[in-house]
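User: Structure please.
Assistant: Input sequence and predicted structure:
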Amino acid sequence: MANLGAVSDHDVAARLDLAADVQRDPHRSDWFGLRTAAWTGNACDRKRNASACGRTSASCHGANDWLYVVVQEAVWVDLANRVGPDVGVPNLATDPRVATIGERRKNQQLVWTLLNKFAEKHTKRELMAILNPLDVPCGPIMSTQDLANDEHVRGRDMWVELDHPQRGKWFNVGMPIKLSASPANIKRSPTLGEHTEEILKEVLGYDGGKIESLKGAGAFSAPKKVAA
């Protein structure tokens, strides 16, 4: 809408840079956790889920290491032939319990158990390297720390360092929607009264004498406490 407004006002279209995954893909990243980390300084635990449509979060080797996997009909045979021998079921692709999509739905827990058994031998990146050549849809479920240190995230200015005179240096989440004609500038919050004089002079047009008079009258300070 902001881009359309710019076209209407100036007859010039701004380049829109928008990454959908950066906004809201809970399966592949932890942006809520990153925002929470920015607010509290604490990382969030991730949750896992599964569905009857063939999606699950595979538990990989390493603490709290997950990969989101979609077991599609088109890739089942190649996936089963790769996973089966390593988990003690060499004929997994044709095993009657999971050979068809209908049976896999009925025995979904078995599929996830075997997939997790296979995944626990690998990190999420190693597992991706195995599944990608098989065309199995998958993606890392990134922790708060993963996101904060991700080269792509930092390259898109989605994890921005700020310096506050009271809080000190800290990080905050950037703007996922980027317009070339009106870039967002992520700034720290102001301190109490930091811009009072600037607003009085530049917005209201008060001169120095009037500002000092108002200051002397206590217009810009908390009222004095009166003893009971």
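The two ends are 56 Å apart (CA to CA).
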